[in-house]
């Protein structure tokens, strides 16, 4: 399997603070990866390292087979939409397109026009006059026309309403199908990621807590409801991710590659958000005990 991104022991330190620590992960080519975690988890730092905007303090990272940002030709293969969707507020939509065509040697005007269909009547409007959803559409059209092999998006839908988020994600998936690109998408909205992603990375306090295919994650994680303090009956190798206790009942989130004995409602499947939150909660609890 070829990997669009491969990191080994990757770390970045700002002064005395570690923004990312011992990050080891592999992102397969052609995958759509969701990156989740609480604020200050290191998500933007990891994405900036992937794009070559930052240099690591420790470890190594390879993107599309080379060091990130190693050359102009390599930069042309990576598309990046930053968290605040940076556009030139005083430039019109049409002027953004002309600028993109001049700056990108692989520019595809057809692709730009296709992804700007919702804005075809607004080409003369300045970017500063567009709504949040329209700005996101323009940013996606610009990065699409670059024809990237790797598309990196840092919380592009955070400020959008539910309808605009759905429209953006639909157009993103159309772009993925057209380009056959690898996508890394950071978001707090895990329910949105579950609709479009086939891989998930959970990052907390600068460390990778979980990484892998969504299908595998969903089939190996369970919620168990048991009498308080009763850990018996778990298969060998079962990992308890999180345990919540009351006087009468223990609620366990576990990971196991083997079937868990028991019947509903005592053994429950989890959705992707529940799994991610369990890992974030475990990491938070461990940090509070240190």
Automatic annotation (TrEMBL):
Keywords: ATP-binding, Nucleotide-binding, Transport. It comes from the Bacteria. The keyword Transport applies. SUPFAM superfamilies: P-loop containing nucleoside triphosphate hydrolases. The keyword Isomerase does not apply. SMART domains: AAA (SM00382). Residues 5-230 form the ABC transporter domain. One of its GO terms (molecular function) is ATP hydrolysis activity. InterPro entries: AAA+_ATPase (IPR003593), ABC_transporter-like_ATP-bd (IPR003439), P-loop_NTPase (IPR027417). It holds the Pfam family ABC_tran. Belongs to the ABC transporter superfamily. This is ABC transporter ATP-binding protein. It comes from Dactylosporangium siamense. The lineage of its organism: Bacteria, Bacillati, Actinomycetota, Actinomycetes, Micromonosporales.
């Amino acid at each position: 399997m070829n990997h669009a991104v491969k990191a080994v022991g990757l770390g970045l330190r700002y002064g005395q603070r570690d923004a990312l620590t011992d990050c080891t992960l592999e992102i397969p080519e052609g995958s759509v990866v969701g990156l989740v975690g609480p604020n200050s988890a290191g998500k933007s730092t990891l994405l900036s390292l992937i794009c070559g905007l930052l240099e690591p303090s420790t470890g190594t990272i390879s993107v599309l087979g080379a060091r990130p940002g190693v050359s102009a030709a390599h930069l042309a293969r990576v598309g990046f939409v930053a968290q605040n969707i940076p556009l030139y507020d005083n430039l019109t939509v049409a002027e953004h397109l002309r600028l993109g065509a001049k700056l990108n040697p692989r520019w595809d005007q057809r692709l730009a026009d296709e992804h700007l269909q919702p804005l075809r009547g607004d080409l003369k409007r300045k970017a500063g006059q567009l709504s949040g959803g329209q700005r996101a559409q323009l940013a996606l059209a610009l990065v699409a026309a670059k024809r990237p092999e790797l598309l990196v998006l840092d919380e592009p839908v955070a400020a959008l309403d539910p309808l605009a988020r759905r429209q953006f994600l639909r157009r993103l998936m159309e772009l993925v199908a057209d380009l056959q690109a690898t996508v890394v998408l950071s978001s707090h909205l895990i329910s949105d990621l579950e609709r479009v992603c086939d891989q998930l990375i959970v990052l907390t306090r600068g460390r990778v807590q979980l990484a892998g295919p969504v299908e595998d994650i969903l089939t190996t994680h369970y919620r168990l409801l048991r009498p308080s303090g009763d850990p018996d009956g778990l298969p060998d190798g079962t990992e308890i991710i999180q345990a919540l206790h009351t006087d009468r009942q223990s609620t366990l989130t576990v990971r196991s590659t083997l079937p868990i004995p028991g019947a509903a409602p005592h053994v429950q499947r989890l959705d992707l958000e529940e799994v991610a939150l369990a890992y974030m909660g475990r990491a938070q609890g461990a940090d509070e005990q240190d």
